[in-house]
């Protein structure tokens, strides 16, 4: 169960929790309706595929209210608070236990029903099976054998029907209950007053449907394999330093600030920062990267990853639901329970499906009873065809078409370090036409180094003095390049000096006083503002910028300001950047780079990455507006066909890839926000997709996963719609005038069960997709 806060006009919360007892898409809609009717509930979405509900509600709604609403619909909600009162098991554990119990019960019912169905079938057609004892053909024996199948094995259909009628709705269980009860009831009537018996039809239908549900339940267990695998990664204990001793404690007892020892081969229990020692850590289970990462003092470590070599101590910084693994599990679970836009059509059709089928069944009976070509067989044809229509209709396949594919697709992504926040992001990633990359930390490693220190020849200031002054000023700065200059100073064992009257000048640089002298350090715009003459260094600055370096100028601020020197910094392009850009361009995706650097430096980096489109000199607060400008521009271009002067209604999808806090607005503004896992929590929260492995090729993999998942969804929907559109008329008898074919209700039951299983099986193919 997951809980989160939501920004709304009134304080609201979001809650996701499992539901037990759903058998079809109609069940999900019934629960949705009950939840929405609950006072204080703002919205509710129930996913049949993942068997979870996501509810947004005001603070005055209690979990008990939600549970009662679900129970009022005839199902069971598993809420953590309620389960904690009864023990220490989590909602997921209870759901898992309930699913296993359901599968065990279904298996027993299938076995018993199969044996009884074989006996009833043999007794119903003694002329076909001559070796069967005559007693099986006795009507009372057939009644005795059929009754437990109808009311024990098939009792769940009656319970669901009663619940539906209570709430003025109908589901697939209603169709099954009506169809099998009609066959069973008429057979009992015929026992007393004479006529044809349909005990075999009733029991075989129930048996085949239960078999289908059993196979479907087993198959659906595998759609949640990704979450189970992630949860299995977690360490069970931690070796914590308590005073002068080391104690092994359960992971649940670890507190923020605890010092924990990890030995070679052990799992790291929680997230933290290394305080002592060095090691090589295998992070593949979380990030998908197979090469171990070297770690030393000050480096962060992720819980559930494996320590390969050295022993080290680390300080716990995140525990419980705050750890990276817990957040990954939460994101995968939420994505699997969300609804994709493409599912809306199936939901609309499903909402009208059962009433339409009931009308068609009655219509089938009336037409065949009144117009049967063989008057003596009129009732028989009318009755069996009506039952066939009731049984063959399958809203389940429609309900499973999208969510099962989403569940497997998001799980597949998680295995490769691609976290998908919601189903909508997974669906529309395939439609990306423009993608904008932030430069620093996204296209580049985000670890710039000082490459050039050039002092003014006129003032004869030594390069080390330049660095010392610049580093002293940068001590109070939050700019990403400040740390680079300070690190360089420390590596040369230079001491920084005290700075007074420090001031950061947004988008330009910084200023401050050292030993009574005023200094400024920043870009050309700052020098122009302070009227510092740097023109004699312009050619050198341009050369550095054309090499892709960021140039900063240090000047003495006085009556006639003087340029003291130049410091150039460069960031290394990620090894995967060039290949990723090339693959995106091969897919006809327009690639852009956005940066705060000047145009010359920006174009040098873009040229190295193979990017032709550059947005340079963009301030952090302007990134989101640039994304919107590109959307408007591309929308006009894509909607207008200049060759034919025709306007199209297609709207291009724009994506933004970033990693920093200042990227969060742009990530939210884009149709698909993609955050690098090495970035900030805010960036990851704003994005629809997070790449844990920091490999830019994963951007291409995410788009490929979206394409493959959407293809499977379309195949599932085509099958689900096609199945019902073709076979319902067949069950009604439209082929009889041409070929003399009528559909046996037992075959209809088999076809209905097969349709749901085929949809789940097709979705499971995504597990074998190569990314």
Automatic annotation (TrEMBL):
PROSITE patterns: ATPASE_E1_E2, COF_2, HMA_1, HMA_2
Domain HMA: 13-78
SUPFAM superfamilies reported for this sequence: Calcium ATPase, transduction domain A (SSF81653), Calcium ATPase, transmembrane domain M (SSF81665), HAD-like (SSF56784), HMA, heavy metal-associated domain (SSF55008)
Major localization listed first in the record, in broad terms: membrane
Entry-linked InterPro entries: ATPase_P-typ_cyto_dom_N, ATPase_P-typ_P_site, ATPase_P-typ_TM_dom_sf, ATPase_P-typ_transduc_dom_A_sf, ATPase_P-type_domA, HAD-like_sf, HAD_sf, Heavy-metal-associated_CS
Membrane-spanning intervals of the chain: 108-128, 140-160, 172-192, 198-215, 349-369, 381-402, 717-739, 745-764
Protein family: Belongs to the cation transport ATPase (P-type) (TC 3.A.3) family. Type IB subfamily.
Record's protein name: Copper-translocating P-type ATPase
Taxonomy of the source species: Bacteria, Candidatus Woeseibacteriota
């Amino acid at each position: 169960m997951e809980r989160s806060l939501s920004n709304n006009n009134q304080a609201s919360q979001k809650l996701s929790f499992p539901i037990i007892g759903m058998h079809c898409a109609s069940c999900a809609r019934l629960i949705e309706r009950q939840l929405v009717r609950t006072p204080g509930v703002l919205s509710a979405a129930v996913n049949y595929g993942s068997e979870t509900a996501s509810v947004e509600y005001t603070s005055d709604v209690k979990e008990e209210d939600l549970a009662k609403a679900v129970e009022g619909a005839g199902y069971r909600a598993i809420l953590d608070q309620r389960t904690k009162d009864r023990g220490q098991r989590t909602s997921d554990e209870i759901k898992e236990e309930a699913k296993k119990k359901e599968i065990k019960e279904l298996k027993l019912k299938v076995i018993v029903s199969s044996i009884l169905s074989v006996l009833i079938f043999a007794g119903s057609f003694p002329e076909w099976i001559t070796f069967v004892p005559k007693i099986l053909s006795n009507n009372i024996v057939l009644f005795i054998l059929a009754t437990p199948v109808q009311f024990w094995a098939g009792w769940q259909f009656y319970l669901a029907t009663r619940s539906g009628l209570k709430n003025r709705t109908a589901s697939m269980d209603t169709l099954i209950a009506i169809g099998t009860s009609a066959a069973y009831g008429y057979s009992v009537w015929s026992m007393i007053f004479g006529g044809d018996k349909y005990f075999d039809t009733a029991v075989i239908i129930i048996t085949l449907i239960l078999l289908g549900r059993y196979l479907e339940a087993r198959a659906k267990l595998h759609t949640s394999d990704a979450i189970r695998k992630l949860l299995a990664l977690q360490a069970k204990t931690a070796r914590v330093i308590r005073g002068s001793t080391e104690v092994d404690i359960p992971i649940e007892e670890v507190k923020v600030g605890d010092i924990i020892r990890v030995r070679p081969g052990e799992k790291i229990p929680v997230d933290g920062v290394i305080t002592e020692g060095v090691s090589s850590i295998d992070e593949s289970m979380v990030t998908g990267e197979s090469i171990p990462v070297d770690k030393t003092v000050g480096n962060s470590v992720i819980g559930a990853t494996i320590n390969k070599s050295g022993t080290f101590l680390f300080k716990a910084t995140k525990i419980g639901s705050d750890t990276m693994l817990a957040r990954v599990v939460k994101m995968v679970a939420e994505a699997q329970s969300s609804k994709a836009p493409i599912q809306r059509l199936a939901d609309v059709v499903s909402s009208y499906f059962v009433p339409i089928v009931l009308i068609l069944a009655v219509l089938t009976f009336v037409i065949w009873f009144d117009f049967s070509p063989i008057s003596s067989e009129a009732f028989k044809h009318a009755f069996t065809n009506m039952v066939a229509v009731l049984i063959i209709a399958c809203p389940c396949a429609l309900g499973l078409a999208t969510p099962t594919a989403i569940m497997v697709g998001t799980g597949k992504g998680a295995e490769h370090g691609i976290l998908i926040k919601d189903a909508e992001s997974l669906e529309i990633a395939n439609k990306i036409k423009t993608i904008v990359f932030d430069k620093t930390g996204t296209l580049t490693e985000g670890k710039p180094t000082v490459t050039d220190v050039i002092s003014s020849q006129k003032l004869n200031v030594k390069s080390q003095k330049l660095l010392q002054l610049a580093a002293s000023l940068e001590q109070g700065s939050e700019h990403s390049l400040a740390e680079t200059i300070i690190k360089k100073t420390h590596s040369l064992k230079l001491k920084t000096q005290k700075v007074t009257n420090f001031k950061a000048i947004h988008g330009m640089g910084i200023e401050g006083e050292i030993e009574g002298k005023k200094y400024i350090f920043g870009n050309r715009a700052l020098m122009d503002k302070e009227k510092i003459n740097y023109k004699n260094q312009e050619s050198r600055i341009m050369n550095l910028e054309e090499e892709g370096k960021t140039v900063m100028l240090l000047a003495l601020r006085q009556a006639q300001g003087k340029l003291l020197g130049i410091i150039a910094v460069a960031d290394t392009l990620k090894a995967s950047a060039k290949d990723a850009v090339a693959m995106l361009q091969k897919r006809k995706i327009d690639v852009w780079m956005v940066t705060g650097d000047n145009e010359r430096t920006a174009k040098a980096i873009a040229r190295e990455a193979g990017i032709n489109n550059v947005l340079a000199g963009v301030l952090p607060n302007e990134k989101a507006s640039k994304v919107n400008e590109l959307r408007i521009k591309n929308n006009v271009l894509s909607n207008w066909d200049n060759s034919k002067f025709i306007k199209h209604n297609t709207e291009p999808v724009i994506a933004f890839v970033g990693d920093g806090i200042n990227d969060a607005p742009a990530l939210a503004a884009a149709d698909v926000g993609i955050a690098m896992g090495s970035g900030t929590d805010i960036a990851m929260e704003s994005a629809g997709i997070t790449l844990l492995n920091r490999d830019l090729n994963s951007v291409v993999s995410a788009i490929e996963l979206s394409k493959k998942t959407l293809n499977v969804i379309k195949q599932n929907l085509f099958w689900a719609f096609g199945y019902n559109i073709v076979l319902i008329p067949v069950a009604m008898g439209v082929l009889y005038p041409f070929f003399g074919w009528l559909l046996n209700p037992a075959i209809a039951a088999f076809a209905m069960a097969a349709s749901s299983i085929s949809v789940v099986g097709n979705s499971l193919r995504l597990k074998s997709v190569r990314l």
